[in-house]
Amino acid sequence: MSRTISLAVIPGDGIGQEVVAQGLKVLTAVLPQDVKLETKQYDLGAKRWHATGETLTDAELEQLRQHDAILLGAIGDPSVPSGVLERGLLLKLRFAFDHYVNLRPSKLFPNTETPLAGRPDIDFVVVREGTEGPYVGNGGSIRTGTPAEVANEVSVNTAYGVERVVRDAYARAQARPRKKLTLVHKNNVLVHAGHLWKNTFDRVGEEYPEVTTDYLHVDAATIFLVNDPARFDVIVTDNLFGDIITDLAAAVSGGIGLAASGNINPAGDFPSMFEPVHGSAPDIAGTGKADPTATVLSVALLLRHLGLEAEAVRVEDAVTADLAGRAAARTTDEIGDALTVRVAG
Ligand SMILES: NC(=O)C1=CN([C@@H]2O[C@H](COP(=O)(O)OP(=O)(O)OC[C@H]3O[C@@H](n4cnc5c(N)ncnc54)[C@H](O)[C@@H]3O)[C@@H](O)[C@H]2O)C=CC1
Ligand SMILES: CC(C)CC(=O)C(=O)O
Ligand SMILES: [Mg+2]
Question: Which segments cross the bilayer (predicted)?
């Protein structure tokens, strides 16, 4: 039976434009003939903000909601005050579409660079909470701009929000061969949120006797991510810690240009959104140096989410083969073309 995928595309800013073009090429090439792709591009980001002062309107949010999934490049530009686009567009989307599971796999592909000695066997996934924590915008400042300024940024952690993401992480750990789940937090200092997370983690864990668990404070977790990353299988953590440790995870497992992510709404009430872990990289935008592989691997997560498992594997296999043979530096387009040829052939 034929099927149509309705995909919203938000290239965004900087290298987002460049890498999304490659991701779309690969996606188009990998789909079987009986799956039709309908894309609608949303020109959101810095240019739009400069032209209209808008980041994301309610009408656009409603249009986006109608799609099966969203592919996003990156948001943020030095010409826009920091936070305006990140909060007003990217986080607004994640919150509005209840993307409470921010899935960030880390794998050390063959022939990729790692600063770690001995090429450890890195293959873990971070389940980062995506709708709470200090990112909710629960803050403010008084006496702003004076030497007496006081600024707050409150981390919001609800029993409901913590439990649902912890449950998702247990289910993922249960489904993986090693069946191991690590909670990363800082409950020796952030005692209120930390204890909610730890108590929830322990309680839900009773339902998963086959899953081995451990707990690490986030500072110690950064040591192990460098010294012994092979110890990790599934990590569950809050929004801020997850943001930070997944950039570190990317750096030790082939670089930020390979790190994919999915902002998942597991219930399917809203479209899930797939994007590379990296940002808009203004330092290399327009140079052709951006590696589109992270976006292509995000396309694989998108395909898997839509039930196209064989196609997801084809994309991942193409990346593995391409990285194994990748010798000289190549441009964004060249990498995208090579991956397109591989998935098509
Ligand atoms: N999901 C998103 O849309 C995100 C947006 N941002 C925004 O992006 C802007 C730049 O943020 P930064 O902190 O500089 O982080 P960034 O991830 O854009 O760049 C950090 C470093 O990684 C390099 N890099 C990033 N992606 C790469 C790729 N595909 N290939 C090769 N090198 C790559 C950059 O050149 C830079 O040296 C800011 O406005 C920030 O708020 C940052 C992170 C995520
Ligand atoms: C720009 C932030 C809102 C997001 C971020 O850094 C991330 O999700 O990795
Ligand atoms: Mg980040």
Answer: none
CA-to-CA separations, 311 to 7, 150, 163, 218, 299, in angstroms, rounded:
16, 52, 32, 36, 10
Residue 88 pLDDT class (50, 70, 90 cuts): very high
Q: Which residues are catalytic?
A: 135, 186, 219, 243, 247
Find the ligand nearest to 278 CA: 1
Neighbours of ion ligand 3 (CB under 5 A): 243
Distance 147 CA to ligand 3 centre (A): 30
Q: Name the residue of 278, 298, 323, 331 whose CB sits within 8 Å of the most ligand 1 atoms, as the mutation to test its pocket.
A: 278
Q: Is the pTM of this model over 0.95?
A: yes
ipTM comes to 0.99
As assigned by CATH, the class of the 1-103+259-345 domain is alpha beta
Query: In this structure, which topology does domain 114-253 adopt according to CATH?
Result: Isopropylmalate Dehydrogenase (3.40.718)
- Which atom of ligand 2 is found nearest the CA of 278? 9
